[in-house]
Amino acid sequence: MIKINTCHIAICTALVFSACTCLSQDAGLVHLPATQNEVDVGEFSGPIGDWLLDLDIDSDNNNMLELPDGSEWEEQIEEHEFSIGKLVEARAARFTPVRIRLNIKALKQLDDTPRTLDDIRVTLATENAKGVIRLFSKPQIDKRDDVDGLLHPEKELQLEELNFDPATGVATIWIEAVEAAPGLDTKGAIDQHGRPDMFLRATLLGIRKTELAIDRVKYLPVDQASFFPTFIDPNNRHIRNSFPAIFVNGSGGLSGTMKQLPPEQSKTYGFRLVTEEEFASELAISKHDELTKKYLIDVIYNKTDLIPISFGVTGFQVGLYRDYSFGDYTLAFQNSLKDKCTQLYFTFAQLDNSLYYFERRGADYISYRNHAERLSYYLGFEDFAVGLPGLQLAGVGIGGDLALFGALGSGLHADTYNTKPFPREMVKTIVARDDPAQKKLIECVSGSLSRLDRAREFITAYFVDETDFRLAPGPFPIVSAK
Prior knowledge:
By secondary structure, the chain is α+β, with helices and mostly antiparallel strands. The chain has helices spanning 72-77, 104-107, 187-193, 227-231, 237-247, 276-283, 290-300, 341-348, 354-361, 363-380, 398-410, 424-431, 448-453, and strands at 21-23, 29-31, 38-41, 44-47, 51-56, 86-89, 96-102, 121-127, 132-136, 150-151, 157-158, 170-179, 198-205, 211-222, 271-273, 318-323, 329-333, 392-396, 414-417, 422-423, 432-435, 440-443, 459-465, 470-473, 478-479. The chain has two domains: 21-231, Immunoglobulin-like (Sandwich), CATH 2.60.40.2410; 237-479, no CATH class. It has a seven-stranded antiparallel beta sheet with strand order 2-1-5-7-12-9-10. A seven-stranded mixed beta sheet has the order 15-16-17-18-19-23-24, with helices on both faces. Strands 6-14-13-8-11 form a five-stranded mixed beta sheet, with no helix packed on it. Helix 7 (290-300) crosses helix 10 (363-380), helix 8 (341-348) runs antiparallel to helix 9 (354-361) and helix 10 (363-380) crosses helix 11 (398-410).
């Protein structure tokens, strides 16, 4: 039996930046990373220190038309280069709320401080705007030509115009999307034109009209029937998982690759590869032993050096992605067109000693699937570490095959795409070996056979067509002999 170390990884990718603007003692504007100085402030989360202005929106798109959570994750992604931004539906009956928070205590300590709340001024503006939006001091209007409560860009606004509550230091405004940004109707159009990065900017002014603080949040005006509302729907994780399943194939895309290629990432769709430095930093404080830590780094980042000896596997490529909408992680497996595991199994199935020939000729392919089991087990075993939030597995073609074995080794959910079905007996042969001495099957990863019996609980299959991006249920990849 191959003994599996039961320690686990704690990951919280830290290479993200807060949009909260902080003020130094000489009144110069400084942007500080929130991950270095965060503290819980009641129902809000923001940086400690001399921050003055915090602009918040539902950057992770999980609150629909409600106020933002003010969570650490929202703060980190509100203007991140991989973030899609808050989707603002064009011609919606209700508008999208934006929260403006002021640090009144810090304001009073400035030389250029407003004498009273009535002296405070805020300006609002857009950057790189596409489509048409309007800002209001109320959540909806009766008619489209109603301008009551309309906030004019660049105008110096008093706090009372922004629904400011002195008790909480919070003001609320709303965005109306009059017209969606162009080129966002379909994935094909987005691939061709890209996704624009648009920002709503708030500027806090002192009594001498100096800019005391600036903060920005991303937004994206869209039509309801366009691509992104479907893409970021919380119920459509299987749609989002298909993207890293394709990106991990590098330039091979959906078709896969004949040679091992480095995975790609995508700012357009909000999927970023976790860097080795980030992974190693968080892994250092996990409860895994040093050998397991080295195994994880070497396999995920494909370290195959002989000197010093590495655990990386030639021909086995994965990518660990983070979704910059919901913060979830996806481990995607590359679709190697050279993998002939199923073909070899059928080739030798009719021969005497078929198992012997299959294990000998298909040793590399079998090892890839065993590595998928072990790797997923180490990453997903929650009893020993905090884990990767929302971790799931995904792959196209052979990549989906490998994701399936990862799911059997760990119990993690796996989405497979365009993966050809293969026999259940082949799966059993790979996840467990017959030990004549003990007269029993020895599993590569404990529990794999029992998980095989309930595989449909956590493994799903889809057909994906990238041309016009169609996703439909596909045949379950494990089939029993007739």
